[in-house]
Write a structure and sequence with these properties.
One of its GO terms (biological process) is iron-sulfur cluster assembly. Belongs to the Mrp/NBP35 ATP-binding proteins family. This is Iron-sulfur cluster carrier protein. Homodimer. Helix content is about 35%, strand content about 15%. By secondary structure, the protein is α/β, with parallel strands linked by helices. The protein has one domain: 3-Layer(aba) Sandwich (Rossmann fold). The strands form 2 sheets. It has an 8-stranded mixed sheet with strand order 3-4-2-5-1-6-7-10, with helices on both faces. α2 crosses α5 and α3 crosses α9. The chain is globular and about 75 Å long. The structure holds adenosine-5'-triphosphate. The site of adenosine-5'-triphosphate (ATP) has 22 residues, from α3.
């Protein structure tokens, strides 16, 4: 960073004292990154983090499905795969094995079908089975860099797929990114429901809006007779929403269409039932 940029970052610094030296101060770097995040994210109309209390409930699958439906409806969509230790988004959106290019100022997102802009740590590592073992602060600082230094451009929606739980990355995103709100994904199972309350409390503490809840793996529809079977219980997510005053955005069944490959983005490929309705609800609420 040039000393002129450092000086201007220093001017707005809350920690500034008369003894500050812009050339050596770490705060200036941080402030400058915050300014870049603000400018970059200011060009995105809706910034939404997709969260879950528990792993494996289908958060990434739901994120990819909503992104595709929004893009199919003509919206400009970006997806940030903030699950640094277990990135799946390139596979779900059919852009595995791609690399993220960079020019001298920014990273350039990989473009998936329907013009969806995708950013994932997987585009930076040698192969998709390479292991990323980084401690929390390093993972959070990479995510901040993706927010500050990726040329996202003007978008209608940025969907941030977070790792499950209330750890470093969810906290860091909620503190750094001016979020429009959260979408919480839960299955109807009791354990998944229990962990949603932790997310609700975290959102309250950080003053972050919960846009709504998606019920995933809600039921299974018999292909022969059409009967709906509810293996994890019926109406548990609906009751949870009533308890906390949350909007139920919709329910997605257990469906082979969600097998986690790029079939989701082929023009013939049909998305799982329910995803389209959820995207339309979001468009009505925020579009
Ligand atoms: N509605 C569904 N029907 C059938 N399979 C599903 C459905 N939703 C998700 N799956 C499958 O469940 C598995 C977990 O999904 P996914 O990776 O999206 O969960 P996740 O919550 O993002 O996991 P984590 O955050 O712990 O990595 C995947 O194999 C996915 O294909």
């Amino acid at each position: 960073m040039s000393s002129a940029t450092k000086s201007s970052a220093c001017e707005s610094c809350a920690n500034r004292t008369d003894a500050c030296k812009p050339e050596t101060c770490g705060h200036a770097e941080k402030n400058e990154q915050e300014m870049r995040i603000k400018a970059n994210m200011g060009r995105i109309k809706n910034r939404i983090a997709i969260v879950s209390g528990k792993g494996g409930v289908g958060k990434s699958t739901v994120t990819a499905g909503i992104a595709i439906e929004l893009a199919r409806n003509g919206f400009k969509v970006g997806v940030l795969d903030a699950d640094v230790s277990g990135p799946n988004m390139p596979h779900l959106l059919g852009v595995e094995n791609k690399r993220m290019e960079a020019d001298e100022n920014s990273f350039l997102p990989v473009e998936a079908a329907h013009g969806i802009k995708v950013v994932s740590v997987e585009f930076l590592i040698s192969s998709s089975d390479s292991l990323v073992i980084w401690r929390g602060p390093l993972r959070s600082s990479l995510i901040n860099q993706f927010l500050a230094d990726v040329a996202w451009g003007d978008l209608d929606f940025l969907l941030v797929d977070l790792p499950p739980g209330t750890g470093d990355e969810p906290l860091s995103i909620m503190q750094t990114l001016p979020l429009t709100g959260l979408i919480v994904v839960s299955t109807p199972s009791n354990l998944s429901i229990l962990d949603v309350s932790k997310i609700v409390n975290m959102a309250k503490m950080l003053n972050t809006r919960i846009i709504g809840v998606v019920e995933n793996m809600a039921y299974y529809e018999c292909p022969t007779c059409g009967e709906k079977v509810y293996p994890f219980g019926e109406d548990t997510v609906k009751r949870l929403c009533e308890r906390y005053g949350l909007t139920l955005l919709g329910s997605i069944p257990i469906d082979p269409a969600n097998r986690g490959t790029d079939i989701m983005v082929s023009s013939e490929g049909s998305l799982s039932k329910g995803t389209g309705d959820i995207a339309h609800k979001l468009i009505c609420m925020l579009g």
